[in-house]
Amino acid sequence: MKIVLCKSHLDGPISGADETLVTYASQLQKAGADVSVLLMYLHAEEDQYYQRLLESNVRVSWIASNVTRTSMNAGRRVANRVFLTFPGSRDLIRRKTQPMLTAVANRYYQECRNFLQKEKPDVVHVMTPNAGATVMIRAAHDAGICVMYQELGIPYHPPGFDYYEEFTAVLPLCAEVAALSPRLFADCSDKLTTCKSLSVLPIMSQGFGNGNGHAARPADGKVTFGYAARIEKLKGPLVLIEALGIACREDANILVKVAGDGSQRQKIAALAKVRGVAGHYRYHGVYTHPEECCAFMESLDVFVMPSFTEGTPNSVVEAMACGKPVIASAVGGIPDMIGDDAGLLIPAGDANELAAAMLRLARDGKLRQQMGAAARNRYLELFSPTVVTPLMLDTYRRVVNQEHTRDLNESSRLHPWARV
To answer: Whose CA is closest to 169, among 120, 131, 125?
Structure first.
């Protein structure tokens, strides 16, 4: 079967959607599938995700010219500087630039269709709702190729993403739309009513680490909590630092490590000083390869994801693969991920509840060990390549054969969430 994974562009440097694309492509390649990646706009040569695709021997093609790529990247850099200087301008700039982005993407419709007609894939798998993805879906459909779209978050969320209304107009052209978890499947069923068929297709992470996340701790008794994501408001990093300040009043042996980058990086460092916990906070920059991710996760006792909105975060899966218990907001598909035994769920934005959860796990090593073991088991059951790759291949087979439902016995064998 010939598969083309499509995305408008690589968002880097810290993109859950890019991580999903690269992991899917590399694992399909390992499974012997004929897989390639098509981008509307090629990113910079040094982009970590592009480099990882090349390292995995996955062929990468792109539609737009290098001149367009350079212009788009320059525009993004200018917009990001404006966002950082005037945070309140974000929604206005998005509204003003969206018509331009749509016009640029539409300009490449015919080239995209010609490319797909020449490649003749069995299925085109499109990710991320934007103007480029809209054109790719239309081009694949008009070229007579089966196309599926995967929703990597929550439809119409976060608020202010006005383009989603326009994007959903092409979803009836897709043979199938995939959600990331049972809860997100229900959300898509409720909001994407024009879809022909819905299914669940989880993210996955390669099996780095041995899953023994709880070797003996240093004699000083320090307990380390970690965060790895974009350092942006919706990911809740300031909530984490507030919680650290509260928790450290009762337990001085708590540390927080942060990996990532974003507009609030300086703000969280400043807040740590204001709350008197700068000595309990460490910034570790951006990791760019799975080995660096593994090293970061292995250095933790507990992983924390205090987001206000999420799909199913890659970093939570990576922590679970390393046997780390998880404290996370009860939003999106996160409750499906950690279940009742792999961590603690908290209300989004509640620093007091987060601090209480941190103190509970800091003080109970046995509970950390139990939850870490459960997290590793849930990773193996739900997010490892050995269970997700066969589900992907079966999904493609059904899409190509125009089968909108799975046999229940076959679903049970493939993946626990395939029965949805």
So the answer is: 131
pLDDT at 316 over 70: yes
What SS3 state is found at 319? helix
The secondary element (H helix, E strand) that includes residue 168 is: none
Report CA dihedral (322, 326, 330, 331) to the nearest 10 degrees.
-30
CATH class of 2-204+385-419: alpha beta
Residue 8 per-residue DSSP state: S
Is 80 exceeded by the pLDDT of residue 74? no
CA–chain centroid gap for 52, Å, is 16
Q: How many residues does the chain have?
A: 420
Comparing 2-204+385-419 with 223-382, is the CATH topology the same? yes
- Cβ neighbours of residue 103 under 8 Å, at least 6 residues apart? none
d(CA 388, CA 27): 9
Q: Does residue 15 contact residue 31 with C-beta atoms inside 8 Å? A: no
**β-strand partners of 282:** 257
Give DSSP secondary structure letters for 281-309. EEE-----SHHHHHHHHHT-SEEEE--SS
Residue range 277-288, pLDDT digits in tens = 999 999 999 988
Reported as a single tens digit per residue, the pLDDT across 208-266 is 656 565 544 555 789 999 999 999 999 999 999 999 999 999 999 999 999 999 989 99
Beta partners for residue 224, in sequence order: 255
Q: How many CA atoms lie within 13 A of 169 on its CB side?
A: 9
Rounded distance, CA 331 to CA 336, Å?
10
What's the rounded mean pLDDT across residues 380-393?
Answer: 96
- Domain-wise residue ranges, the chain: 2-204+385-419, 223-382
Task: Please report which helix (H) or strand (E) contains residue 155, including its range.
Answer: none
Beta strands in 239-388 (DSSP E): 254-259, 281-283, 302-305, 326-329, 343-346
Q: Hey, what amino acid is at 318?
A: E
Taking CA atoms, 12 is separated from 18, 76, 271, in Å, by 7, 12, 26
Alpha carbons 157 and 104: distance in angstroms, whole number: 24
In this prediction, residue 202 carries a pLDDT of 97
- N-term to C-term CA, the chain: 25
8 Å CB contact between 415 and 202:
yes
**Alpha-carbon 365 to chain mean position:** 29
Integer Cα distance of 337 and 40 in angstroms: 32
Q: Which of 3, 50, 5, 19 is nearest to 312 (CA)?
A: 19
pLDDT in tens, 164-178: 888 999 999 999 999
CATH class of segment(s) 223-382: alpha beta
